[in-house]
Amino acid sequence: MPSAKTRDARRMEVSRIGDHASADRRRTAWRSRYVLLGAVTLVAAASLIVWRFWDGRGDVIKPDGGPVVTVIDFGRSFPLDPLPSGWKHRKFWTRTPMTMAFAVKDGVPSMRFETHDSASMLFRHVDIDLAAYPMLAWRWYIELPIRSALDERTREGDDHPARLFLRFLTDRGDKRAMEVIWGNRLKAGDFKYIGSFPHFVADGGDDRVGRWLDEKIDLARVYAEIWKDATPAYLVDVAVFCDSDDTHSASISYFAYVRLEQR
């Protein structure tokens, strides 16, 4: 039978082995945490790159060095179902989509957008440095504006016959979005917020309905008015967005083109 000293020595050895094993487990756990943190960081960076350059975005419009980048040209027809690479019709599960058709309105080749208690968005994927191309220009025609007593500054009244939805990606990887809209009662130059989401009113009013209007705004200035941190940004999506689902009304509008321009 082992002596008491021998038993104590064995217990101390087992204890030391246990301490070493515990320390090894702690080191392994910390190494696992660092590896996991590094993997998460790499995945996040990769996801950002994929989102910007791939993500099923297909044919992305980029500047060729000229003074104007035409991101949407409805003067040239293309298939609507399925859409060409670089386009996306975003539909909402609980809403009927807007109808779209190529048309010639008052001699101008364009796309006609009509809603009846409906809403959807036609996206064009782009990649444009806002600092290099700060001016947003487009041509639209409002045939039937939103007729509703509801306040367009509320969620219940948040419908417009024509909008341009704009999505940005900053150098820090932040995703931002805003809309340039036709005001129902709001006037050109007004801002409205639904929650924290910003809208800039480019035009509006019954006296402006029923004719083609060529618009141009300093988008970089509007962007800086909304986000005051001066973070460099790229425009990554432009979408025509028409809706009448909240007010249960109807609208008809036309777009001819959308462009980004140098100053």
| CATH topology (fold) name of the largest domain | Jelly Rolls
**SSE string, helix = H, strand = E?**
HEEEEEEEEEEEHEE
Major β-sheet strand ordering: 2-5-12-7-8-10-9
DSSP E strands, number: 13
- The number of domains is 2
3D structure, described in words:
There is one protein chain. With 263 residues, the chain is of the alpha+beta class. The chain has 2 domains: 1-55; 68-261, Jelly Rolls (Sandwich). The chain is 22% helix and 42% strand. The chain is built from 2 helices and 13 strands. The strands form 2 sheets. The chain has a 7-stranded mixed β-sheet, with no helix packed on it. Strands 1, 3, 4, 6, 11 and 13 form a 6-stranded antiparallel β-sheet that branches. The relative contact order is 0.20.
Keywords:
13 strands, globular, Jelly Rolls, about 260 residues, about 40% strand, single chain, 2 domains, seven-stranded mixed β-sheet, six-stranded antiparallel β-sheet, alpha+beta
Draw up the topology in text:
Layout: H1 4-53, E1 68-73, E2 87-91, E3 99-105, E4 108-116, E5 119-129, E6 135-144, E7 160-170, E8 175-183, E9 191-194, E10 197-204, E11 212-218, H2 219-226, E12 233-243, E13 250-261
Parallel strand pairs: 8-10
Antiparallel strand pairs: 1-13, 2-5, 3-4, 4-13, 5-12, 6-11, 6-13, 7-8, 7-12, 9-10
